[in-house]
Amino acid sequence: MNCPLCGGTECQNKFESQSNALKYHCKEYDKEFLVSGNVEQPQNNIKQNQLNNLVFEFIIRNAVCEDENQCWWFQYLPDYHLQDKDASNIVNLAEINYPNNLVEKLDRILLNLYNIKSCYGEWFHLGGSLARAFFTDTDENTELVGIYMMLQELGYITVKPPVIWTEHVTALIGQIQTPS
Ligand SMILES: [Zn+2]
After folding, report:
1. What's the average model confidence in pLDDT over 61-69?
2. pLDDT at 150 over 70
3. Is the CATH code 2.30.110 the one for domain 102-176?
4. 176: CA distance to ligand 1 center in Å?
């Protein structure tokens, strides 16, 4: 099972019968969390990517669970609103709005980058493990590269060497700059 955060296959996941969910430990981001089956049985790949994007954003923004003895437990319940009686570590992804326009998407991408790399001017690899941070809906590298290029053209990141439309996206390095 690919890791919802980094997309890798190396991250630990094991079934927890108590919660009827998979417990992940992402090596790349060093985060532990539970994912219920209803998150991992979406209608299509785009929906799966979108749910994973929300998991990523939530975990990066909320490093510590309200209940310190628990980790976040992601579920997808379109017909249910969480109530006080529900466990405090449950997150209903259906209750988090998905960025439905480009401006909001770019805004939330920049927040993700800030939460991962809060030091402006730091260089980092624009690899596939950042796909979730960039809110990509598809598995196509062209979408990821397109977003890099847009952020670069807007002056938010500097990419070196210049982005080339190849499969070698993982070799690229980018830099977050202070928005002007
Ligand atoms: Zn991972």
Report:
1. 79
2. yes
3. no
4. 23
Question: What residues does 157 pair with on adjacent strands?
Answer: 176
Confidence check: pLDDT of 74 > 70: yes
Q: Where in the chain is the domain with CATH 1.10.10?
A: 102-176
- In the reported structure, the alpha carbon of residue 6 is separated from the centroid of ligand 1 by a whole-number distance in angstroms of 4
> Who surrounds ion ligand 1 at CB < 5 A?
3, 5-6, 8, 11, 26, 28
Contact 91, 75 (CB under 8 A): yes
Centroid of ligand 1 to alpha carbon of 103 (angstroms):
27
Distance 30 CA to ligand 1 centre (A): 8
CB 12 within 8 A of CB 30: no
* Global pTM value: 0.86
**54 φ/ψ angles, rounded to the nearest 5 degrees:** -70, -40
| Distance separating alpha carbons of residues 150 and 152, to the nearest angstrom | 5
**pLDDT higher than 70, residue 169:** no
Distance from the alpha carbon of residue 130 to the mean position of ligand 1, in angstroms: 11
CB neighbours of residue 130 within 10 Å: 24
pLDDT 10s digits, 46-57: 999 999 999 999
